């Protein structure tokens, strides 16, 4: 007997809640903001809009379903199940934060602040939640399958991301490694740089695009559903021992980029979540490529 669907409402603390956690009371938070030329009124209004959206979405969950909530800071400790319908209530970035922990569950993006958020991934309003939840579990439901990038280390550690994966040194040091196509018997080019970025079409409006523009790349940026990744080496340093001939490229399905560490420590993290990073050390290698799992975003 199959389990009833479970609605998992993903949210994050609002700016108002963070201010209260830091300053203790509404009055102290208001004084802090006023001393910097800001008013707490708009912050409190945005907080209430977010809370109301969460209440409305929770009320829209069918009575025969199960439901739960998870805060952004707890995503790495939350166990998603195959029958889950994930409802992200917040900003576009929150969808990316949740995506790395999913394995094909449908995702509904609810925009809590239309006009302030771009609405690229949180495309819907909370008033439509009931219809969206029914659509997410209906046969033949329409979803956008957004390409994701993955990093798989030689010790089986794995990381996936919706926008991009960054590999580089912690802090402001220099990473030393060898870089080359996966499967090539050659050891790859020795490089010293501030890191490597591998991004998707969803990430092509952010960090990936800034590197693409900086390099004046003629390779077209991928669309979110394209089975294609772009990668760039950041600030590669030429020296007698390190080269700069492999500083950008494109990966299709089945293709990979391999990086072998030649320094004390390199971190690998996705979508800006450095707190949930892989750590690699001397001699370890990692393969970057298109993930077999896509983000299934309900349209």
UniProtKB/TrEMBL annotation:
UniProt xrefs under SUPFAM superfamilies: NAD kinase/diacylglycerol kinase-like (SSF111331)
User: Mind telling me which InterPro entries this protein's record contains?
Assistant: ATP-NAD_kinase_N, ATP-NAD_kinase_PpnK-typ_C, NAD/diacylglycerol_kinase_sf
Name-wise, this protein is Inorganic polyphosphate kinase
- Which organism does this sequence originate in? Streptomyces cyaneofuscatus
């Amino acid at each position: 007997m199959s389990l009833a669907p479970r609605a998992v409402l993903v949210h994050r603390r609002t700016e108002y809640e963070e201010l209260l956690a830091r300053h203790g009371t509404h009055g102290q938070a208001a004084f802090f903001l006023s001393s910097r030329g800001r008013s707490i009124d708009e912050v409190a209004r945005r907080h209430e809009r977010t809370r109301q959206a969460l209440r409305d979405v929770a009320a829209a969950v069918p009575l025969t379903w199960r439901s739960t909530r998870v805060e952004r800071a707890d995503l790495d400790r939350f166990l998603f199940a195959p029958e889950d319908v994930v409802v992200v209530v917040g900003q576009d970035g929150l969808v990316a934060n949740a995506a790395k922990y999913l394995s094909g569950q449908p995702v509904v993006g609810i925009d809590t602040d239309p006009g302030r958020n771009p609405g690229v991934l949180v495309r819907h309003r909370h008033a439509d939640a009931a219809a969206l939840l029914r659509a997410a579990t209906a046969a033949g439901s329409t979803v956008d399958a957004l390409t994701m990038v993955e990093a798989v280390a030689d010790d089986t550690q794995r990381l996936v991301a919706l926008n991009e994966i960054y590999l580089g040194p912690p802090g402001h040091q220099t990473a030393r490694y060898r870089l080359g196509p996966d499967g090539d018997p050659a050891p790859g080019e020795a490089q010293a740089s501030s890191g490597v970025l591998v991004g998707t079409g969803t990430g092509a409006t952010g960090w990936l695009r800034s590197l693409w523009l900086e390099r004046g790349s003629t390779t077209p940026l991928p669309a979110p559903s394209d089975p294609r990744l772009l990668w760039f080496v950041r600030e590669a340093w030429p020296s007698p021992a390190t080269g700069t001939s492999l500083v950008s490229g494109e990966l299709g399905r089945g293709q990979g980029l391999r990086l072998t560490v030649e320094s004390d420590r390199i971190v690998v993290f996705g979508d800006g979540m450095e707190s949930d990073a892989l750590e690699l050390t001397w001699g370890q290698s990692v393969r970057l490529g298109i993930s077999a799992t896509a983000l299934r975003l309900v349209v």
